[in-house]
Amino acid sequence: MRRRIMLPVLTVAALLVSMFLAAPAQAHGYISSPPSRQAMCAQGRVANCGDIVYEPQSVEAPKGSMQCNGGGSRFSVLNDNSRAWPATSVGQSVTFNWVITARHATSTWEYFVGGSRIASFNDGGAQPGATKSHNVSLGGRTGRLTVLARWNVADTNNAFYACVDLQVGSGGGGTNPPPPPPPTNCGTAWSASAVYNGGAIVSYNGRRWQAQWWTQGETPGTTGEWGVWRDQGACS
C-alpha cells in the first residue's frame, strides 16, 4: 500500500516542478529618460492617468502594435494625444534609458516615428540588466514628435511599449518646456505609512532613493537590486 500511495504523490510533485520551471518569467520595464508617457503619469507630471500611475512598467501587449498602450484594453490613456503630454527638448541623437524591473530574454528593441521604424537593436535572446540604453538618431526630423518604443520578448508572444514625446530643435513655442533638473538634496524622509508613486524621492540613512513604481511600507535598501527603491547616492 505504501508504494502505491507514494508513486502518485511523486508523479504529481514532479509534474508541478516541471510546470514551474517551464513557465516563463514575467518581464516588466519602461523608458524613464527621456520620460515616457507612463513615466510622466507616475511622476505626477500628467494628472488623472488611472492605474498606470502605479505600474508604469506594465504596458504589455502582443507584439506588432503601433499604439502607445500596445493596443490592449488597459492604459488607453497613453493613446490620448489630446492630453498635454510634456515634450522633452532634444537634439538629433537621443539616448533612451529603460528601467527593467523584471529581466527577460529579449529578441529586439524597436523605435518608430509616425509608423516608420528608425532604429532596431537585436539582443539575440540575451537577458537585459537592471537598465538598458539605446542611442537613436532621429534622421533629421524636427519639431514635436512622438517616438514609439517596443521591447520584444524572446520567449513569449508579447512586447512592452512606451511612447516618448520629444521637441527636436526650436519651435516649441514654450508650451512644453524640458523637465526640471533633478533635486540636489534628498527630499523628505522616508515614512513607512506614506504612499509613494514611481519617481518619488526620499531620504533614508543619509542616502537618496527613488521609487521605480508605487510602493508603501517597503524600506529603502532592503528591496534588492531589482526592487522598488533605486539608490541614488549619498545626500548632498
UniProtKB/TrEMBL annotation:
Keywords: Hydrolase, Signal. Pfam families: CBM_5_12, LPMO_10. The keyword Nuclease does not apply. Residues 187-232 form the Chitin-binding type-3 domain. It comes from the Bacteria. The keyword Transcription does not apply. GO terms for biological process: carbohydrate metabolic process. One of its GO terms (cellular component) is extracellular region. This is Chitin-binding protein. Residues 1-27 form the signal peptide. One of its GO terms (molecular function) is carbohydrate binding. InterPro entries: CBM5/12, CBM_sf_5/12, Cellulose/chitin-bd_N, GlcNAc_Chitin_IntDeg, Ig_E-set. It comes from Asanoa hainanensis.
